[in-house]
Specification:
The chain has a five-stranded mixed sheet with strand order 6-4-1-3-7, with no helix packed on it. The protein has a three-stranded antiparallel sheet with strand order 2-8-5, with no helix packed on it. It folds into two domains: 81 residues; 90 residues, RNA Polymerase Alpha Subunit, Chain A, domain 2. The protein has two helices and eight strands.
């Protein structure tokens, strides 16, 4: 047989050789990818096993148990604080408003003092359970003549009471205007 070397024959052999080379490269790359995938899979298995043995070791489990117990104590403690604050807020105070006359003290015998207004509103605060124990007749609103400042048209009032159940007390208004008349 005589081998004829024609141009078509040469290009066909060259094309077959080139595609075979590309096919070999492709197969080699696929094999390398499989090797890498298998090595990654083996690494993941190895580290997963190490992680499982670490997490389920006696030290880590006891740490997690005590962490959960301490969280539970903290949570119960915070609930108790919120509950006790709410109870205190709801049982804190009972307020009552009363009208009382202004009483002048420490004035000279020949002085007649008139205050404006003559009566003031007093707001008395007690703890809710003690409001019945307060005798409102024991509360007095005082105008002390000995503490008058010269040139001032208004004077600060003083509250006098002797009841231990009163926890808060306010006068409205806390200052009054006054007129002093001296008799001869």
């Amino acid at each position: 047989m005589i081998c004829s070397l024609s141009k078509n024959n040469l290009t066909e052999n060259f094309a077959n050789h080139r595609s075979a080379k590309l096919l070999r490269r492709f197969v080699d790359k696929q094999l390398k990818i499989r090797e890498v995938a298998n090595s990654v899979k083996n690494l993941l298995k190895r580290y997963t096993l190490k992680l499982k043995t670490f997490l389920f070791s006696r030290d880590v489990l006891s740490f997690l148990l005590f962490l959960a117990i301490s969280f539970l104590f903290w949570f119960v403690n915070s609930l108790d604080k919120e509950r006790s604050t709410e109870v205190r807020m709801s049982t804190m105070f009972t307020e009552r408003k009363i009208q009382l006359p202004v009483t002048v003290i420490n004035s000279p015998d020949n002085a007649k003092i008139k205050t404006f207004p003559a009566t003031v509103e007093v707001v008395v605060g007690t703890e809710r359970g003690n409001s019945k124990s307060v005798d409102y007749n024991d509360i007095r609103v005082l105008f002390d003549y000995s503490t008058i400042k010269k040139g001032s048209a208004r004077h600060q009032l003083i509250i006098s009471y002797s009841n231990n159940y009163i926890s808060k007390i306010n006068i409205l208004p806390s200052e009054v205007e006054y007129i002093i008349e001296f008799e001869q």
